[in-house]
Design brief:
single chain, alpha+beta, minor pseudopilin epsh fold, 5-stranded antiparallel β-sheet, 1 helix, 10 strands
């Protein structure tokens, strides 16, 4: 087992696999419930939102234990690209202004994205890609990848 600066590489894999599972479940939920969902990502956390047609705002799914906000373990960080463009992960000052960077449409489709989870000073990183057709893939990169 390889040990990173502030934790082990299994921690990165666990977090990446958790996020993939949540995204896949989000695609299914959006399709079955007929409502748009979204993933909002900050440098050290992520959370899911649902679009409210009535208020025209994104409401956090904080009361849903599955889609609650999740903080990344210390030392892990993410970067996000949507439609091949880098996305700022600075938090919004006003929660009313939050718009998820990754849209999960009620049709089961996704806004194409690439999300990278890595640890500073470590060679291993995990890349999660989402395609327009709703498919999600996890790829490990680095010298410890298998």
């Amino acid at each position: 087992m390889s040990i990173g600066t502030l934790g082990n590489d299994e921690e990165i894999e666990r977090e990446a696999r958790r996020l993939v599972a949540l995204l896949q479940l989000g695609v299914e939920e959006a399709l079955f419930q007929g409502r748009d969902l979204g993933l909002y990502v900050e440098e050290s956390s992520y959370s899911f939102y649902a679009f409210s047609p009535d208020s025209q705002l994104w409401d956090p799914l904080s009361s849903d234990t599955t889609f609650r906000q999740r903080d990344l373990p210390e030392g892990l960080y993410v970067s996000l690209f949507v439609e091949e463009q880098p996305v700022s992960l600075e938090p919004e000052d006003d929660p009313q202004d939050i718009v998820p960077q990754v849209a999960i449409f009620s049709s089961g489709e996704l806004l194409p994205f690439e999300l990278v989870i890595e640890r500073e000073f470590a060679d291993l990183r995990y890349v999660i890609t989402g395609e327009a057709d709703g498919s999600i893939e996890l790829i490990s990169e680095g010298e410890d990848a298998y």
